[in-house]
Each structure stands twice: as C-alpha cells, then as structure tokens.
Amino acid sequence: MEGSARILALVKLANVGLVLIWGFAVTFVFVRVLPLAEFQAFLLLVAFGNFTVSAEFGLTSIIYARLRRHWLGSGVGDDGAFRLEEMGVLFLFLGLLILGATLILLFALAAGALSTRTPLLFLLFFLSACLNLPGLLAKRALAAVDGNFLWEMLDCGRRVVTIGLLLAILSGLDPRLSVALQLAVSIAVIGWAIAHVHRRLGMSARHWMAFRVGGGHVRTHYLGDIGASALFTVSDIIAYNAPYFTIAMVTGEARPMLIFDFFFKMSRALSMLVRAVVEAALPRITRAYHAGESVRLRQLLGRAMLAAFLFAAILSALLLVVGDWLFMMLFNGQASIDQADIILIVVALAALTLICVSVYVQSALGRFTHLLARSLPFLVGSLLSVPLALALWPQRFDLAFLALYALTMIGVAALHLFSLNRLARA
C-alpha cells in the first residue's frame, strides 16, 4: 500500500474529507449545546487552539526533511546529519508549548477573560486541539520512515471515532465525557504512532531523554532552518489573512468581507486537497531528489502538478456553475456575488494550486530560506491590494481588490514555477 501513490492519495483524500466533516461537526454540535454567549467564547477558544498549533512554525516540516534524508541514507555520517536524540528535544519543545498555552488558558478562565460555566469542557477541548502538535510530529516522522499509509489509516480511524463521539452529544452524551473520550482516543493513536517510529529507527529510552546532546545538535544545526521556517510561516499567515483586517479598516460594508471569506474558504478546501495528492507523491519525489535522479524528479513533479490542477479544475467548474447559489446559501442571502468576482476567484485558485505544490515539495526538501524569499512578494501584494483597490476603483472595490489579489498570486506563482524548474534541473 505504501508503494502505491494512487492508493495513498485516496486514503489521504478520505482523511481530508473527515477533517472537513470534523470542522463542520464542531460548529454544528456546540452551537446547539452551548448558550450563544458561551458559543462565542468557544469560538475564541478554537481560534486560540489554532494559533497554538501554528506556533510550531514549521518545526515538524524541518524534522521531516532531516529525518527523510537520514532514512534514505543521504548525508549519513555528516556532522550536521540527523541524530536520534533530536526527537526527544522536539517533543519536549512541543510539550512546553502546550503547557504554556494551557497556563494562559487557565489564567484567562480564572480572570474571567474567557467566560464560561463549563471551564472543564473548555480545557478538555483545548487539550484535544493541542494534541494536533504531537500528532503532526508523529505524522511527519512516520511519513519520513515510509509509514504514510499506516498513519493515514490510524488517523482515519481516530477521526471516525471522534466524530461519532462528538455527534453523540446531540443524543444526550455529556459533552465533557465526549471530549474526554476523544482526548483518550487521540492520545492512544498518537502514542502508538510514536512507538512505531521508535521501533523503526531503533531508538532507546536514552535517545528520548538525552536533552543536552539533542539540544546541542538542534541549536547548532536547526536555528537557521527554524528562523527561516518561522518567518516563512508568519509571512504566509499574514498574507492569507491580512485582507480580513485591511478590508474592515477601509469599509464597513459586509459584501467585500463576505466575498473574501468565500474565496478564503475555497482556497482552504483546495489547498487541503492539493496537500493530500502532493504528500502521496512525496516519498518518491524526495527519494529521486536525494538520489540525484533529475529525469525521474521532473516526471514526478509533473504528475503531482497534473493531479493538483485536476482538483483545481473541478472546483473551478463547480464555482462557475453554482458559485452564486453556493455563496447565497453559505451566507444566508446576506449578499450576492457577481460572475466577474467568481472568475477572478477561479484565476486566483489556479495560481494558488501551483504555489501549494511548490511549497509542499520544497518544505519536504528543507528549502525554507528559498521559500521565505518567495513569500515576501506575496506578503507585500496582500497588504497593498486593499488600499490600492480603494484608491483605483472605489465604486467596485470588491472587484478591484480581487483583481489585485489574483494578480499578486499569479506573480508569486510564476516565481514558484521558476523555482520548481530550477529544482527539477539541478
């Protein structure tokens, strides 16, 4: 199963579907079991949980790139090669990150900054969200040692069980018990995955506890990648989310914000699908890259690109046919969207597809400094799109903004295409 990119892609796509169902189910369930004021506080909790998970700043991508290179036997024996002691240090870092965020949450609950009559429910849900940090590390570590299929099957099973436990709340199951059981299931699955990595790498308990040795190695060989990865992550987060704030600053009209939110939701769905098909191809892509097989690498990149654009074409066709209806249904008829807006969204999604393929591939190869340089033009264009649109065409601000934002993404996509061409010919 691991050797079949098609089967792996199907399993990953199934997992993406479960993730989307989970996101919908959380809102569907808790908006019905919590009073409106508490549900608003719950949304803040969810946002804080997402921020906490993002605060690893690409560290798991770094470990994938280093561990994958080690697993393929490239660079073994080099002074900067991967060492087993690094795993313990990285888990310690993630544990401290979760601990720090939990203390902040407890302080917010105690001070009344996050008002709720069910603080235990909030705490348990936050901890279950934070488990995505060690879960992401387990996923990347297993993927690096050719355990992609194993992780996806484990994760699919975990998500089916947790979605069932979540929906059981509507049938009378105590929400605190439901979330506690979800937490236990996640701990068991992630623990089993980490134990499997432990066995595959031939690790011992000493490797997990050698914080001084591992910490020294991380300090010596990670700081450059960590800095570039962190800056790249921050740049991307701002570039993709900044229009929410800049639009709110220049206009009080709801329509431009809803149109951007519609594009954002479509882009998130597309990026998840693209990530699934690219990750299915990464074992072969990384193997070809580290073996110096440029012809094979070009062939694999082409296939990944073709699969990614297939999903982009399907989503684009869907938007062109029923995009206006979908927009009206999603936002309960609060605003309408023009066909010109939809066409610009489709153009931006095409550019986004190429950007996503490049980012996922080059992250897996550890090219974080290169990605940072490519992200800065996107950041500048995103920040300037709103004020420029207001200055150039205030009467059709939404259309002008989308045009500038799409143009920015096209330019960035061209830079990424140039990068992939150079990578494939290296």
List the helices and strands and how they pair.
Layout: H1 5-33, H2 36-54, H3 59-71, H4 85-111, H5 119-130, H6 132-144, H7 148-167, H8 175-201, H9 205-209, H10 211-221, H11 223-250, H12 254-290, H13 294-330, H14 339-364, H15 368-392, H16 397-424
Helix pairs in contact: 1-7, 1-12, 2-5, 3-6, 4-5, 4-10, 5-8, 6-7, 6-8, 7-8, 11-12, 11-15, 12-13, 12-14, 12-16, 13-14, 14-16, 15-16
Structure in words:
With 426 residues, the chain is mostly helical. 84% of the residues lie in helices and 0% in strands. It is built from 16 helices and no strands. α3 packs parallel to α6 (132-144), α6 packs parallel to α8 (175-201) and α11 runs antiparallel to α12. It is globular. The two termini are 30 Å apart. The mean pLDDT is 86.
Q: Give the overall silhouette.
A: globular
How can the largest sheet be summarized?
A: none
> What's the assembly state of these chains?
single chain
State the order of secondary-structure elements, H for helix, E for strand.
HHHHHHHHHHHHHHHH
Features:
426 residues, mainly alpha
Compose a concise summary of this entry.
The chain has 426 residues and is mostly helical.
